[in-house]
Amino acid sequence: VIFSGPDKHIFNSVFVGGHSARNSPDGFDIDGFALDNVVFMNMTIVYQGSPTMLHNVRFINCKFKVPDSPQGDQLLAMAVTQQTTANIG
Fold first, then answer.
1. d(CA 15, CA 37)
2. With b meaning 16 or more CB within 10 Å and e meaning fewer, what string describes 75-87?
3. What are the per-10-residue average pLDDT scores of the chain (89 residues)?
4. Considering the entire predicted model, what is its pTM?
5. Which of 18, 30, 54, 78 has its CA 20 to 30 A from that of 70?
6. Which uninterrupted H or E stretch holds 70?
7. Cα gap 52→33, rounded to integer Å
8. Which residue, among 54, 80, 65, has the nearest Cα to 18 in the 3D structure?
């Protein structure tokens, strides 16, 4: 699945593997998305710092490309502690 356009809300979805969902050359960029009940497994998650809402989101065996910033740190902390809900940015 390739995502583009103004609708940046994903709900009730499971993405497995780097080719299941891709919207940037490096992986899946979650910037600006509202994600509800989503699981990412074996993917590269890209975050550049834009506001992002995550509700019941799980990252399983994912790699992350994030900025050295409070927002990037917040996303990484969420993933490491297996917290499933956060408003970032």
1. 11
2. beebbeeeeeebe
3. 65 92 92 93 96 94 96 93 90
4. 0.89
5. 18
6. helix 70-81
7. 5
8. 65
